[in-house]
Design goal:
Elements: E1 3-9, H1 13-24, E2 31-37, H2 44-49, E3 55-58, H3 64-74, E4 79-82, E5 88-89, H4 93-103, E6 109-117, E7 123-127, H5 134-140, E8 150-152, H6 153-159, H7 171-181, E9 186-197, H8 207-223, H9 229-251, H10 259-263
Parallel strand pairs: 1-2, 1-4, 2-3, 6-9
Antiparallel strand pairs: 4-8, 5-9, 6-7, 6-8
Length: 284
């Protein structure tokens, strides 16, 4: 099974090299790495050129989801995974994903567990999940780390790509819901696949981005049938509790401390990131 790794980037010179090396050092040989640059000006292009194995392009785009779509369209692998330029795969991730698809040929996609790290790569905490549950996603919370989501390219061709024009910060959440609504079989691999970085130059650490993401998530939930209001709050409580019960029954553990609490000290009112889609210009 050939796996296509798609990395969108823009002015990512400081972190892209680690992401590239994390793919190149995998103990699984059947992969390609597609880097879609948005027209960087900080030396990112020189870094990309120093890795001749990369399949790359550089042109202005409409944000990271637009770049993801371009990479997916270019992918020649049976399976596609998105690895952002400031994150990295952990050893054995690609081999474990390929083995899981081989063991479960009916799976349309799979996701795995994640380690959150700081700007120096130091562990903040790790998050381990139990199973894909559409209702937990819709009524509870988005608990699937996008960088651990491996999707058969045929599924993208059937369901469509990321709706970047509508959801500049939450298009991956909408796609995860789309998988469930369309009846796709999404498996879970109980292994740590990705180091997800929270750092001063990242969007994830920016409170403005988080607020924008929550606003877009609310729109997506309404589109998919979440009633919102007091009924929505009750459903959120119920399905968050269901997620913890699933983790306790399947993994033998649950979250005693919320992830948002663990990450709070790594957030900033305004982080120092570049965006060619205007996301760095969001008002406080």
């Amino acid at each position: 099974m050939k796996i296509s790794v798609v990395t969108p980037c823009f002015n990512s010179r400081a972190t892209l090299g680690e992401a590239i090396e994390s793919v190149r050092s995998q103990d699984y040989p059947h992969w390609e790495h597609i880097v879609v640059d948005g027209g960087s000006t900080d030396g990112t292009l020189d870094l990309i050129k120093s890795f001749p194995h990369l399949i790359s392009t550089s042109e202005k785009d409409q944000g990271h989801y637009d770049a993801m779509n371009k990479g997916i369209a270019r992918a020649s692998g049976e399976v596609v995974v998105i690895l952002n330029s400031d994150d990295s795969f952990r050893p054995g991730a690609l081999r474990a994903a390929a083995a899981a698809f081989a063991d479960h040929p009916g799976w349309d996609a799979l996701f795995a567990d994640v380690v959150f790290v700081d700007e120096r790569g130091r562990k903040i905490f790790q998050r381990q999940e139990a199973t894909y549950d559409y209702n937990v996603l819709l009524y509870g919370l988005d608990y699937i780390c996008h960088q651990t989501l491996f999707v058969r390219k045929a599924v993208y061709e059937r369901l469509g790509l990321y709706r970047f024009r509508e959801f500049s910060n939450s298009a991956d959440y909408e796609f995860k819901l789309r998988l469930g609504r369309q009846g796709c079989r999404v498996g879970h691999v109980p292994a740590l696949f990705v180091n997800y970085r929270y750092h001063p130059a990242g969007q994830s650490a920016d409170r403005r981005i988080i607020r924008n993401m929550l606003e877009q998530t609310a729109i997506i939930r309404r589109e998919y049938g979440n009633p919102g209001g007091w009924r929505g709050k009750m459903l959120t409580f119920v399905y968050k509790a269901k997620r913890q019960l699933q983790k306790l029954l399947i993994r033998g553990k649950c979250d005693l401390v919320p992830g948002t609490w663990r990450l709070r000290t790594h957030l900033r009112d305004k982080s120092d990131f570049s965006s060619n889609a205007g996301l760095d210009k969001l008002t406080p």
